[in-house]
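Re-run requested by the PI after the first attempt was lost when the workstation crashed. Everything re-entered from the original request form. Ligand of interest: iron/sulfur cluster.
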Amino acid sequence: MNGKVNEDNGRIERRAFLSRSAAVAAGIGATALTGIAAAATPDAIEEAVAKVGRLPRRKLGTSGREIAMVVGAFVWPSDLVEAGARCGMNYWHRVNGFKTIPPAILKNREAHYCQVSVDRVRGNHETGQIVEEEHYQYVKQALRDTGLSYFDDMQFRFGYHTAAEVKQNRGMIRAFERLKKEGVVKHLCLSQHSYNGNALVPGGQSAPEVLTALIEDGAYEHYQIMYSYGDDKASSDAIALAKRKGQGVIAMKTGRGVGRMGEDAAFMKRLPAGTTPHRALVRWLAAETPLDAVTVNTQTLEQFVENYAGMGAPLKAEERRAIEMMRAYADQRACRLCNECMEGCRQQINIADIMRYERYARDYKDIRAARYLYAKLPRQGDACTACGECPAKCPQGLRIPEKLAEIHRLLA
Ligand code: SF4
Ligand code: SF4
């Protein structure tokens, strides 16, 4: 996630979501979701580019392609895409979501890596299936829809449910191989969510468990995973394993709680002078993690400058202090989406999904999308009976029943 919310499943649902969002959103939501409005003047873009300069680059996975450490997506409005491209951004997540491919990419297509993302079919990411022919046809249709003659990367979005599924169902990989033979895709990658404790995915495993199997399997070149300050050892171990094998890792959902911090005057007052939560986050990700690239919530040119100016420089002492404060702040409030609490909930509540939608509302300020996604949940927060089963399992010690009630009031 690196702009407004871009989560939904399937072509028809996604289109409906975009159209609904565009219809209801007042300004910023529609702009960010469709990526067609150019809010900034050429002078403002020029100024932003001058302030940010050349973004640092890393080699991505086994292909060794050099990419800017900031990954953009279809949710970026066209002025941000223009500014990003001029600062060297060259990897674009889920370009099949753009209503039209931005000129900044098209005018130098060979210099950009464009990713098509592919979901399970006949259901959502929990209930859907992996079906070779349908994924193959989906990508062919995406080529027609975007007008591109090829995609650089094909991404399996949301990933596998279990390590066993990686071995047993090669449908996504076979679809990729057919498309690669035709020259319309070049690289295979995946974003991985956690399915442990998910009532709709019996036997589901955590993202680090599945990733470990994927890395050993070697069919995928790079991975997009949830990663932020204070994350668990299992995720760090999976990233380290990928790096040892020469495979790439892009972090998503990096800003755990940063939107909330920005609105907390007392917290902001205590934050060391000269930094902001987003700036400290980006500097820390670039300077102190082994990640190849990151996605960070960015919606305006002002945020583009705030986030990325100075990216790649060594972490300053005040930024290090800021990250420690942010970690402590987020640990008290913002779920890390690990799913540890979900096993055994007799109400079969998908706690992590509810907490994710809270993030969209509170941190990405996209209340409409959060409510839209929340409305689709089979069990909402008000189904919690406060039975007391889950809080002890939360590594952050979050008071889950109270949080669910509070989120339900926000999103229902
Ligand atoms: S406290 Fe609520 S969410 Fe937690 S296990 Fe019980 S019913 Fe499920
Ligand atoms: S509430 Fe706690 S245990 Fe549950 S997903 Fe969030 S951080 Fe993990």
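Saved to the shared folder this time. Residues 345, 347, 349, 351, 384-390, 400-401 surround iron/sulfur cluster (ligand 1) (CB under 6 Å).
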